[in-house]
Design goal:
By secondary structure, this protein is mainly alpha-helical. Helix content is 82%, strand content 0%. The longest helix has 64 residues.
């Protein structure tokens, strides 16, 4: 025999059925989407770990080739590394390492190509700036002054501002523009940490231009009066 409680339960059941009929598909798809996202996240993490592990193995080969001074082998391994795992940090580090050993062995074209790849593909601005600094040095050596300055214009990591200004001064000096070079060296000297020995080299460059840092500071004081 039905009781008020049975009727209440039936009413609740009917209400639940009506609710599920109206919103069931929406809830089901929401759950499916959530589960798919969770599964995708786990798959992505696994894929990243797998990529990093394989990239690390290739980078180890590249490092051994670099230590042996084998520029040819280093270049081959890096080509493999950038083709298979271009989005890993190992590819970025590998580009710089391969370019260094290639430069040391006189393979300037290959070194330039790898540095250009790093400047274009690195995820961190610091890596891009390091690549552009080294490219500027190679272009300066090749007497491509306009190209060197263009690379320096793209070297924007704040932590390398002093080195970028110093390299700019070198290029401007090579162009026969001592006044502009002096201004670049003064900017480099001011931006360089006074504890770094490299600052003395910049001082020497300024002194050679008859503008030691003390004179630059005095000029600033005089201009402000």
């Amino acid at each position: 025999m039905a009781t008020p409680l049975d009727l209440q339960e039936q009413e609740q059941l009917d209400a639940l059925k009506a609710f599920w009929k109206q919103y069931g598909n929406l809830i089901t798809w929401a759950l499916v989407a959530a589960l798919a996202a969770y599964a995708g996240l786990n798959t992505w993490k696994w894929w990243q770990r797998d990529q990093a592990t394989k990239a690390a193995a290739l980078f180890d080969q590249l490092d051994r080739a670099a230590q042996a001074g084998d520029a040819q082998r280093a270049g081959q391994v890096f080509n493999d590394l950038k083709e298979r795992y271009p989005r890993t940090a190992y590819a970025e580090q590998g580009a710089a390492l391969a370019a260094r050993v290639q430069f040391e062995r006189g393979q300037l074209e290959a070194a330039t190509a790898n540095l250009e790849w790093l400047a274009d593909h690195a995820g961190e601005e610091e890596y891009k700036t390091v690549a552009r600094l080294r490219l500027a040095a190679l272009l300066l050596q090749a007497k491509d002054h306009a190209g060197a300055l263009k690379q320096l214009d793209g070297a924007t990591a704040p932590s390398f501002a002093a080195l970028v200004a110093d390299r700019r001064g070198d290029v401007l000096m090579a162009q026969g523009k001592p006044d502009e070079a002096r201004a670049a060296y003064q900017a480099a000297w001011k931006a360089m940490d006074e504890k770094l020995e490299y600052r003395r080299l910049i001082e020497a460059k300024l002194t050679a231009l008859a503008a030691p840092p003390q004179s630059a500071g005095a000029a600033d004081v005089g201009a402000s009066k």
